[in-house]
TrEMBL record:
InterPro entries: Kinase-like_dom_sf, PQQ_rpt_dom, Prot_kinase_dom, Protein_kinase_ATP_BS, Quinoprotein_ADH-like_sf, Ser/Thr_kinase_AS, WD40/YVTN_repeat-like_dom_sf
Cleaved signal peptide residues: none
Keywords associated with the record: ATP-binding, Kinase, Nucleotide-binding, Transferase
GO molecular function: ATP binding; protein serine/threonine kinase activity
Classification via PANTHER family: MITOGEN-ACTIVATED PROTEIN KINASE KINASE KINASE 20-RELATED (PTHR43289), SERINE_THREONINE-PROTEIN KINASE YBDM-RELATED (PTHR43289:SF34)
Residue ranges constituting the Protein kinase domain according to the UniProt record: 17-281
SUPFAM superfamilies: Protein kinase-like (PK-like), Quinoprotein alcohol dehydrogenase-like
Protein known as: Protein kinase domain-containing protein
Annotated binding of ATP, by residue: K51
Pfam families referenced in this protein's UniProt entry, alphabetically: Pkinase, PQQ_2
Length: 763
């Protein structure tokens, strides 16, 4: 995972970065975890991965020219599915580049350590990667080395790495005519002809092989002999045994011999249809455990560097899959000739590939002799080996992850993202519906098929997301579960509900209990929860003295309580961000260390709810008296500025740093960085003051009871969209403020304490 820097190398400075630990190495260079020298941090999401060329290698002018060209291409690649390029210097004595650090394992490591992924996860994985590829292809960039080792798993979803940069690090003449690029087992037939033959459809072929690996645990062209691997790729003879039947037709289309017959990346995303509105990707429990390990290791490295300790002083958090070179670069014995971009004579590729196989095999043997890093030959992990790690089957409760949760995900920013209005994310067969849940309900959590709604007395009900029909129900049990609300989340086929008795796991489809992690006991009522990197942070109030509180951190992968901190006042809901847990104590903002639970900062602002803008790290809070939004320093919690007045709903903050609040029925949007108001709009609400404000794609929505107003984020026009939900209310039912609305696929899901739950079109 992380290796200490060699003796005499720590600390090492490279440009504006301080190297913290070694992430991996190949034949041409190394990759290090680093942070800026002027902004040391223990937050993994503010760190970078710095790739350097080995100092003992001669770097000529041609290399630097190609390196600059690849850097320029990489700068054009952006989006949520790619690790963005942060900085680079092709003219340094040892050229280097810094990319966004992704605190998670590669897909190769995850499958080797945890086994093949569930079909739902593979669909979501494929959809995300296909969308990322479509964006890359749109700016005229090819990946050319898409394989499991170049797919990193983050909490919010997969990220592609090494867009053209990997080639520059693995060969000094990589882009020369006639070179074979890619990795054995995950190359396309075009890769065998040479780099000039690679087209967007080649990336799709490689992605098909990656999805087969993720779904079955082995590559579709895996063979003990490298020559056989190359030959099978040249004929597109994929072995898809182990790939679920539901996925096989899509994977087969990706792996067709003729690139003209393969789907485009955008078409592949539509075929998979696995995307879903979520801030945290639906990874299975074992993968979430790996994410927690990586986040913990990076935080420890940052803290160790700040304290003067080395990474070697830190505990080892788990086995590491040996690093293997990221590209095979071998010159085939083929005559150079112009390559047509479409409709190639694919019979010629078969003949040429057989010749390439012999050269490629020799190249792989040479790489293995001198690598010294272990791993498989020249390009990623082919699949689990005999005696290797497999998926865990002993954990009492798998780790927790969000699908669509209250507050719109991490940071509690009430931002449901573009998926909120994208109809592709709507539950299949959905139509507006109304349901009534016995024993009431608070906030619900939405999975692709089931809306999970905890009620009073420990009751939990699963409603069909498409029609609102009851799928299952767990009746209330025990006095302990009657104290305080319960908080839900869903990942994969498991729903997790947090109450005073702890965390209980239920099957999403049938409601059967799958396990539980004990809570603090019947003297405590849950006030709120937040999830970060596989750890559930909770706050409780003492129901006996009603003056004190408690904060806890539980790792859901194994049920271990990481810490338990008494609080000297009644807490509100926690928010975990940047290695801290923010907790309002009464109206006093307090920050706890996410690793230890120790208090690290206390402010003086009037705060009863925290919102964190994940991109900038800014902390916002609203209080009990001032009625304004206060921006706090993320480290000291000291007040920086305030804006707004008489706020009754909000704030919501989106990724672009826009903050939305409502004052009665007046909707306002501010710029987070400056505090300046962008615009205000008097939105008509017949049910009184706004109760909720949130972002849904390019819209801002305010809601009050059973009505909602939608305004464009860019600002109101002469008209705006108003919607009163057409919910059929039970006799004698009175709407009141209750659970947090959810949004996905152009549909809203709203719950109320009296037991009413309905779903309707977003305005």
């Amino acid at each position: 995972m992380l290796e200490a820097l060699p003796p005499g190398q720590a600390p090492r400075l490279l440009g504006p970065y301080r190297l913290l630990a070694r992430l991996g190495a190949g034949g041409m260079g190394e990759v290090h975890l680093a942070c800026r020298t002027d902004a040391p941090t223990a937050d993994p999401y503010r760190m970078v991965a710095v790739k350097t060329v080995r100092e003992d290698l001669e770097v000529d002018g041609d290399f630097r020219t190609r390196f600059r060209r690849e850097i320029a291409a990489a700068r054009t690649v952006d989006g949520p599915g790619v690790a963005r390029l942060v900085d680079a210097d092709a003219d340094a004595p040892s050229p280097w580049l810094a990319t966004e650090y992704v605190p998670g394992p590669s897909l190769a490591e995850a499958v080797v350590r945890s086994g093949a992924l569930p079909i739902g996860t593979v669909r979501a994985l494929g959809t995300a990667l296909a969308r990322a590829l479509a964006g890359v292809h749109a700016v005229k960039v090819l990946h050319r080395d898409l394989k499991p080792a170049n797919v990193l798993l983050a909490a919010a979803g997969p990220k592609l790495i090494d867009f053209g940069i990997a080639q520059a690090f693995e060969a000094t003449a990589l882009t020369s005519t006639g070179l074979v690029v890619g990795s054995p087992g995950f190359m396309s037939p075009e890769h065998l002809v040479g780099s000039r033959a690679v087209v967007p459809a080649s990336d799709v072929f490689c992605l098909g092989a990656v999805l087969a690996f993720a779904a079955s645990g082995r590559g579709p062209f895996h063979d003990d002999e490298m020559a056989a691997v190359i030959y099978r790729i040249s004929r597109a003879e994929a072995d898809l045994d182990g790939v679920p039947e539901e996925l096989r037709p899509v994977v087969e289309r990706c792996l067709l011999l003729d690139p003209d017959l393969r789907p485009s990346a955008a078409e592949l995303a539509e075929l998979l249809g696995g995307g879903f509105a979520s801030e945290v990707f639906p990874w299975p429990g074992p993968v979430l455990s790996l994410l927690a390990e990586y986040g913990e290791a990076a935080r420890s490295a940052g803290e160790a560097a700040a304290s003067g300790a080395g990474v070697a002083d830190l505990p080892t958090l788990g086995p590491v899959v040996p690093y293997s070179p990221t590209a095979m670069t071998t010159r085939p014995v083929l005559p150079e000739a112009p390559v047509e971009r479409r409709r190639r004579p694919w019979g010629a590729i078969v003949a040429g590939a057989v010749a390439v196989a012999l050269v490629a095999t020799v190249g792989v043997v040479l790489l293995n002799r001198g690598g010294g890093q272990g791993g498989t030959a020249a390009g990623g992990v082919a699949g689990p080996t005999n005696g290797g790690p497999s998926a865990s089957t002993t954990a009492p409760v798998t780790a927790l992850s969000q699908v669509v949760l209250p507050y719109g995900g991490e940071g509690h920013g009430n931002d449901f993202g573009a998926a909120a209005t994208d109809h592709a994310h709507r539950p299949a067969g959905w139509a507006p519906w109304t349901a009534e849940v016995e024993q009431g309900t608070g906030s619900c959590a939405l999975s692709p098929k089931v809306l999970v709604c905890p009620g009073s007395g420990g009751a939990v009900t699963g409603l069909g997301a498409a029609d609102g029909k009851e799928r299952w129900k767990v009746p209330g049990r025990g006095e302990g579960l009657r104290s305080g609300p319960q908080y839900p989340a869903v990942v994969g086929d498991t729903a997790y509900v947090t109450g005073p008795d702890g965390v209980v796991a239920y099957g999403v489809e049938d409601g059967r209990e799958r396990g539980r992690i004990p809570g603090p006991g019947t003297d405590w009522a849950v006030k709120g929860t937040d999830l970060r990197d596989g750890v559930l942070y909770s706050t409780y109030v003492n129901v006996r003295d009603e003056r004190t509180g408690l904060a806890t951190a539980v790792r859901l992968a194994d049920g271990k309580q990481l810490w338990r901190t008494p609080l000297d006042a009644l807490p509100e809901e926690p928010v975990a961000a940047a290695g801290r847990v923010l907790v309002p104590l009464g109206v006093v903002p307090v920050a706890l260390d996410a690793r230890t639970g120790k208090e690290v900062a206390r402010g003086a602002a009037d705060c009863q709810r925290f919102v964190v803008h994940e991109k900038s790290g800014s902390v916002l809070c609203t209080g009990s008296s001032a009625g304004s939004v206060t921006v706090l320093d993320g480290t000291t919690l000291k007040r920086k500025r305030s804006f707004g007045a008489g706020v009754t709903a909000g704030p919501a903050v989106n990724a672009d740093g826009l903050v939305a609040v409502a004052n009665g029925t007046l909707l306002s949007v501010y710029d987070l960085a400056s505090g300046e108001r962008r615009w205000s709009f008097p939105a008509t609400l017949t049910e009184g003051a706004a109760q909720e404000v949130y972002f849904a794609g390019n819209r801002v929505l305010i809601a009050a009871k059973n009505e909602m107003v939608s305004v464009a984020v860019a600002g109101p026009a002469s008209k705006y969209d108003y919607k009163q939900f057409e919910a059929k209310l039970p006799d004698g039912f009175t709407l009141q403020a209750g659970g947090k609305p959810l949004a996905s696929g152009g549909a809203a899901f709203v719950s109320f304490p009296g037991g009413l739950v309905f779903s309707a079109y977003l305005p």
